[in-house]
Amino acid sequence: MSRARNTTTAPTGSVAPLGLRLLPELRDKIEAAARTNGRSLNAEVSARLQTSFEPQTTEQIQDLELEISKQRMATAVERAKAIQYSLTLMAIAAHVPPAALANSPTVAAILKEVTTNRNAKMLDSARQMLADAVQTVVDIDQKISDSQTKPVKTQDAKKIKRP
User: Fold this and answer.
1) 44: buried, middle or exposed (CB in 10 Å: 19+, 13-18, 0-12)?
2) What's the whole-number mean pLDDT along residues 76-86?
């Protein structure tokens, strides 16, 4: 498959040449993006590289930090549910008479494992969940503190709507 050479509009002397080898799949993706954005292959690669060196805006960073906090909270909720289910199963297991399990050795083994070995695992899970929750609260407090004392950049100040 022959590929047409893309040319740049900048004078040859003002752009430093760069030989670059790409996987065909990656080149196809960049070419598709270049067509979508109405740019040459070179202009698309240059624009993407330039963007990677620009500092992220405060808003983008805050959005990412919020997403991380949401994921931490979701993980903590899932751990809490798992502990709740384990506690419920342990409570049920404690009330099952041994005679009822005489014909079900598999169920008896599972209930025995739940009532004996799960206590240590649940305690470890509860400790980890508590540590994660405390860390999340500390992180949120720090971000709030940082945002209240951080000077506003000129570009961010322009975004603020004044009455």
Assistant:
1) buried
2) 79
